[in-house]
Amino acid sequence: MTVTVPRLLCLHGFLQNAKVFSEKSSGIRKLLKKSNVQCDYIDGPVILDRKDLPFEMDDEKWQACLDTEVNKAWFYHSDMSSELNLDDTIKYVADHIRENGPYDGIVGFSQGAAVAAIVTNKITELVPSHPEFKVSLLISSYSFTEPDPAHEGQLRVTEKFQNAFTPKSDSKTKMLFIYGAGDQAVPATRAQYLANIYKQALQDPEQVKEFEHPGGHMVPNKKDIIRPVVDQINEALAV
């Protein structure tokens, strides 16, 4: 008899790769392994040149990025959310799931979390034979926003991506959010904004759990922070 091991698909951040994200999330990964939950890490399809970076980087650091093959991403950075194009990336992830799935859940960090949120919302459309995820863990996550013309000083999801970031109200996927109080790259308010989209849209807002840590733009590995998260994942996977 074949025993099916629960599996999570893991999407790294900007200027990372599967290997680095596996190392950075080792605390969560090792705790999950004790519950016999497997984490599958894949590389993003975008190969970055130095001109694609939204910040300056010296020759030595850039060469180190090339040497370690972390010049990968899920989409090219843009200050204008409406200019982002994720069509190829969403297809790339959907094709991977179709060929290597099914997956019980998805994990994403930063850029990977934005992609993971969209895939979570659209999985049954992207891969019609695939069931809903049981759990979605979004770390330092965000949606694609722009100033709301109807409410001065407020944001809304960019019109182009409003459908992508709209979850089904009857979704049963447990949504878990981890974010850092000291995150300068993706301020906690951006993760909270995305979490609120789910709280407002889902029939059961208790499906949404938030975990704040005192650090910055990182995957926390301290057991007191990640153990409650892993408990939630195990509960969703019934392991």
UniProtKB/TrEMBL annotation:
InterPro entries: AB_hydrolase_fold, FSH-like_dom, LovG
Cleavable signal peptide: none
Serine hydrolase domain mapped to chain residues: 4-228
Keywords of the record: Hydrolase
Assigned GO CC terms: cytoplasm; nucleus
Pfam families hit by this protein: FSH1
GO molecular function: phosphatidylcholine lysophospholipase activity
A GO biological process held by the record: apoptotic process
Domain of life: Eukaryota
The keyword Hydrolase belongs to this UniProt entry's keyword annotation: yes
Cited PANTHER family: ESTERASE OVCA2 (PTHR48070), FAMILY OF SERINE HYDROLASES 1 (PTHR48070:SF9)
Descriptive protein name: Serine hydrolase domain-containing protein
Gene: TDEL0E03430
